[in-house]
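Protein in question reproduced for absentees:

***
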Amino acid sequence: MAHTVVGVFDTSNEAQTALQQLVGSGISRDFIDIAPQMGSDLDKDKDNDSIGSFFRNLFGSDDRTDRYSSYARNGAIVTVHARSAEEAERAADIMDDNGAVNLDERTSGYAAGAAATGTTTPDSTRTDSTTTGTTIPVIEEDMHVGKRTVETGGVRVRSRILERPVEEHLRLREEHVHIERNPVNRPATDKDLNTFKEGEIKMTEHAEVPVVDKEARVVEEIRIGKEVEEHEEQIHGTVRKTDVEVDKLSEEDLRRNRLNNDPSRHV
């Protein structure tokens, strides 16, 4: 929605003062047009068509077009192309405070020759012109349910070698050779004489020692695997959509709009 605010002033000095106040309030000078008072008949003839076209664009073929055009040709016009409704309200208040006239009063003869104070009427100084149509997008959401795989847990199996002490009791046997000498005094026999020669006798000692032998045996098997289970799950969600209701204006609504747009209520 483009907002156009029009102010008509009795003198060019008032229009220039309003212009300075508008720029000082933060409104860009590029969005403000000013048409000074026309002096000579040549100026009037040259601007007659442009002023009439301006009000015809605002009001169409309404009878206000001729009345406003006729008065505006004798005054100075300041036009603000506001970029927002708030800026349009600020511009209208500034022009009111600096002497913008109420065209309804002037053209109707209620207060001829006097500058209007207070709030200017929508017909005289403030208009909204639509540059583009209003579009209401109708949006509707769809819910798409899918699935993806996520990690929910797991197991890690590690193997390592542990040592533990083992103790066993074992009885061992050892042999020891010993020699005994017994003194005797008897006559030698034939058996003794047979052994009466050089010789050698050897006797070996033996002993038991521990022997350790290790045997590796498989005492347990660990298998790692997984099983798959399936289950059904009910998915709940909400989706949104734009619901557009079209109501026809009633007679009461039309009457209220006519009252709100009546210029005499804003005097």
Observations:
- DSSP finds seven helices and four strands in the chain.
- The longest strand covers residues 2-9.
- The longest helix spans residues 41-59.
- Residues 6 and 79 are 5 Å apart (CA to CA).
